[in-house]
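Final report, Chapter 2: Outcomes

The project's central promise was a pipeline that accepts a single protein chain and returns its three-dimensional structure in a standardized token representation, suitable for archiving and comparison. That pipeline is now operational. To close this chapter, we reproduce one record exactly as it appears in the project archive, with the input sequence first and the structure output second.
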Amino acid sequence: MRSHVTEPMQHGRVFLAGDAAHIVPPTGAKGMNLALADVYVLAEAFSAFYKRNTSTQLDQYSAICLRRVWKAQRFSWWMTSLLHPSDDATAFDQRRQLAELDYITSSRTAAASLAENYVGLPMELH
């Protein structure tokens, strides 16, 4: 499964969003959500630029989006390693994977963390 992040996600007034800026494995179901979040941040930044003549949010677009992108990358990597056995996994690796699944299903805190990351982290515009 392939992952990629382009940093920065902008060059001057050229802005990348969605798959042009980042690719995540489908395990965490984050691709479309990240793309929509990018466009939302960009739309808010354009709105501020044209309504209030401020480019602060446009200038910070990449930094704002990359915080969310890297969290989604981490979550997708974690979900992939949790749910898919590796071809070169040792018996130790398999037991660790099962222990992680057991932890998630037996801990409210672990389950809440999975839910928060899966449903989506809060939108940040600054």
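Archive annotation: The mean pLDDT is 93.
This record, like all others produced under the grant, will remain available to the consortium after the project formally closes.
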